[in-house]
Amino acid sequence: MNHWAIVRAAIIGFAGISSALAPTAPSAQVDVGWEVVLVGFLFFPVIVCIGLCVFLPFRSAKLKLSAPAWSHNPFDFSKPEQFFHMAGYGMLATGAGLLLAELWGTSTGLVSAFAAAALGGGILVGLWILGLVARRQAKFEVQR
After folding, report:
1. CB contact at 8 A, 14 and 91
2. Are 120 and 43 in contact (CB under 8 A)?
3. How far apart are CA 15 and CA 91, in angstroms?
4. How far apart are CA 8 and CA 11, in angstroms?
5. Which of these, 117, 121, 119, lies nearest to 94 by C-alpha position?
6. pLDDT tens-place string over residues 126-143
7. In 10 A of CB 108, how many CB atoms?
8. pLDDT mean by block of 10 residues, the chain; 144 residues
9. What number of other Cβ atoms are within 10 A of residue 102's Cβ?
10. 121 touches 88 (CB < 8 A)
11. Is residue 124 within 8 Å of 88, Cβ to Cβ?
């Protein structure tokens, strides 16, 4: 197992365990509705696509993505998709931890667990869309 895979697993594991065990009752109550789950899952792919495409002028104006992998350095910002890959799984782990806390009865609400998981899922869907675009672009360049 690569040391970067261990670092990623440790960060993601810490996110899940800390969200399950930490007290989640805030001093100020915020009413989070189900629209946050929908917005997180629908708009985070768009945000990831826009965020990574901002780098296009600095990266010779075409999308050069490497496939996100557990063995790559997530803190190498010349490949930001690696960081977003780890962040997406971290948010999924946070959502799973909050769901576990909800089952134990120590969480403030079920919606917050699904909102965190939806954000993580949205990030991963955004990376998947960018991967499709990059593969299609590479296929188009080969055919020309």
Report:
1. no
2. no
3. 8
4. 5
5. 117
6. 888 888 877 776 665 544
7. 17
8. 89 90 62 75 78 61 72 85 91 89 72 84 87 72 49
9. 19
10. yes
11. yes
